[in-house]
Amino acid sequence: MEWVDTHLWTIPLMPLLGVLVHIFLGGTLGKKLVGILACLLVFISFGLSVVVLLRLLELPAEERHLLDNFLPWIRVGAFSADWAFRADTLSAVMLLVVTGVGFLIHVYSTGYMHDDPKYIRFFAYLNLFTFSMLVLVLASNVFLMFIGWEGVGLCSYLLIGFWFHDLNNATAGMKAFIVNRVGDWSFLCGVLLLFWSLGKYTGTYTVDFYEINRLAPELPAGIALAVGLLLFGGAAGKSAQIPLYVWLPDAMAGPTPVSALIHAATMVTAGVYMIARFSGLYLSAPDAMMVVATVGALTALFSATIALAQNDIKKVLAYSTVSQLGYMFLGVGVGAFSAGIFHLMTHAFFKGLLFLGAGSVIHGLHGEQDLRRMGALKSKMPWTWLTFMAAWLAIAGFPGLSGFFSKDEILWQAFSSEHGHWALWLVGFIAAGLTAFYMTRLVVMTFYGESRWPEHAHPHESPRNMTVPLAVLAVLCVIGGYVGVPAILHGANYFEHWMEPAVTWAAGHGGAEAAEHAAELGSHGLEALLMAASVGVALLGIGIGWWMYSRRRDIPEAAFQRWPNLYRWVLNKYYVDELYQWLVVDNLLRLTRLSGRFDLAVIDGAVNGSAWLTERVSAISGWIDNTFVDGAVNGVAEVTRAAGGRLRLIQTGRVQQYLTFAAAMVAIGVAGIILWPSIQPWLAELWSGAI
C-alpha cells in the first residue's frame, strides 16, 4: 500500500473526473449512467481513503502522516508553497466522512432527484463539491486549503439556489454567499497577518500547517490572539456560528440531499476542522480559545431554543445543526480537539440520516414540509421511521448510541479541562436537554399521533436507493460511537489515541493536563456524576417531549396562549434576520442610493458640466477660427486673386499691345530725364518744408 504515499492526488481526482464527464458528456450518457458514474467515482475515492487509513495504521503513531508534494506552485526566495496533500490522522477521519457519507448521499440522490429535469447538472455540482471538500481536508498548506474553502462555498451557493426559478431559493443562495464572504474576509486577513508575523518574529515565512503549529509559540501573545480571532471569524461564517449563522436555515431552500451533505455532514464542519488543524496556534492564544468556546456554547443554546418552535421539518434540523456545530466549537475551544472532531464524525452520521429521513418524508408526502400536516407516518413509511429512530436517539444523547459518547466527552472536557469552565458545561448541559426535547417533538409530530396530511396525499415509502443509505447510516449511528468509549466506561477511547499525532499540542493540554485537573476534582467519580446528569437531562427531554406532544397536546397550545410574546419571538427566531435587514441591509441600500444620487449629481454633473463647457469653448474657438483665422487666410487669397485678375489684363498675348506698353514706358522715362532738373529744386523745397 506504499504507492498511496505519492498518489494522494487520486482521491480528489475521481470526483473531478465526474464533473468533467457530466459537463461534456452528460447529455450523451443519459441520466441513469450519469447517476451511476457519479456514485462510482465517489465510492472509488472512499476506497482510496480506506487504503490511506490502513496505510497510516501500518506506521508508528508518531509517524502517521503522508505527504504527497506532486506539483510545484509558488517559489519566492526561500519561501515555497506547492500543490501538496497531507494525510494524517485528522485528515483521514475527514476523508472517510466526506467520501463515505458523501457516497451514501449520492446514492440517495439518484432516487430523490430522479424526476428533476436538471438531474445531470445536480450531479456535476455534487461531484464538484466533493472534489473541493477533499482538497480542503487534504491540503498541506493554508493557500491550498483556501482554494478548497472557496470551492465548497461556491458549490454551496450553486446548490442552495439550484431551483433558481423560485426567487426565494435564489435569494437564499445569495444570502449564504454574501454572509460567507464576510467570514472569508476575516479568514483571509488572519492568514495574511499570520504569514507576516511568522516572517517578522520567527524569520520563517511559511504556510505549511505543521510548521505554523511548530512556530506558533514564538509569536507574541497579542499577535497570536489577533490571528486566532480572525481565523475564527472565517470558521464562524463557514460553520454558522453567532453572529454569522443566519445563512444556514435559509440554505434549506436547496434539495434535501444538499442539506444532508453540505449543510449538515461536511462543509459546515470545515470551520471546526480548520480550528483543529491550527491547534498549536490556538493553544498559544488561550484567550482566543475562550472566545471560540464561549461563542460555541452560546450558539448551541441559542439555536436550540429557536428549534423548539419551528414547524418546518428542515428548519428544525437546520437550527439543530447550528446548535450541534456550537458543541463542536465548544469542544475545540476548551482544547479537546479530538472530542470536537469525534462529535463532527458522529454528527455526520446522525444528522445526515435525519436530513435524508426528512427528505424521505417530504418525498413520500409529495413536497410537504410542515410538521403540522404530518403525523401517523410510522405505518406508511416503516423503513424511514425505523432508521429515523436511531438518529433521533443518537442526537438526543441516549446511552450507547454515537451521539451520547461524543457529546458527553465534550461536556466533560468543558468542565474539567484547563481551558474549560463550569459555566460552559452548564450552557452545554441545558442545550443537551433542549435538543432531546425538540427532536422528540419532531419525531412525535411526524410519525405518531393522528394523521394530519390531506386525504389526497397518499404517503408512501421511498424507493430502495433512498432507504438503503438510511439503513447504513442508522447502523453507524448505533455503533459509530464505540471507537471513542471513555475510560470511565472501561473503554480504550481509540479515537482520542488515534487523533493524538495530528493534534499533539492539544494532547498535552486537552488530554494529560485535563486528566490531571480532573484528578484534582475527584477524577472518575465526578465524571460519572456529570455523565449521569447528562443522561438524565436527555431522558428528561425525551420524556417531556413525548408526553407533551403525544398525550397532552393542549399543554403546548396553552403555553403559546399564556406567553404569546415569548412564543412569537422564538417562532420568529428572535427577529435576528429582521435586525440584520434593518441594521445592515437597509442601511447599505440607503448608502447605495445616496451614492447613486451623489454619482448622478456630482460625478456625472462634473463630467456632463465639463462636456458642456468643452462644447461651448469649442463653439467659440470655431467662431474665432472661422472669422479671423480663416478670414485672414481667405483675405490673402482674395487679394491675391484680385491682383491676379488685374495683372491678367496686361498679359493678353498680343504683341501690338506689348509694344504700345513698352513705347509708353520709354516715353515716360525720357520725359522724366528731361524734366528732372526742373522739378528737383521744387521737390527739395517741398521735402524741407515737410520736415
Name a few traits of the molecule.
691 residues, mainly alpha, two-stranded antiparallel sheet, 26 helices, 3% strand, elongated
Strand content: under 5%
Strand order of the largest sheet: 1-2
Order of helices and strands: HHEEHHHHHHHHHHHHHHHHHHHHHHHH
Instruction: Give the tally of structural domains.
Output: 3
Q: Provide the low-confidence segments as ranges.
A: 505-521
Rounded radius of gyration (Å): 41 Å
- Give the fraction of residues assigned to helices: over 70%
Shape: elongated
Let me know the average pLDDT: 89
How far apart lie the N and C ends?
126 Å
Number of H- or I-type helical stretches: 26
Estimated structural class? mainly alpha
Quick one: biggest sheet?
2 strands, antiparallel
Total E-strand runs? 2
How would you explain this protein's 3D organization?
The chain has 691 residues and is mostly helical. It has three domains: 1-140; 161-572, no CATH class; 652-690. The protein is 75% helix and 3% strand. The protein has helices spanning 10-29, 31-58, 89-112, 119-138, 142-160, 167-202, 209-215, 221-238, 247-250, 256-265, 270-277, 279-283, 286-307, 313-333, 337-364, 382-396, 402-416, 422-447, 464-479, 494-499, 504-521, 524-551, 554-562, 564-571, 576-647, 655-690, and strands spanning 65-76, 79-88. It has a two-stranded antiparallel ribbon. Helix 1 runs antiparallel to helix 2 and helix 5 (142-160) runs antiparallel to helix 6 (167-202). It is elongated. The protein starts with 9 loop residues before the first helix and ends with a helix.
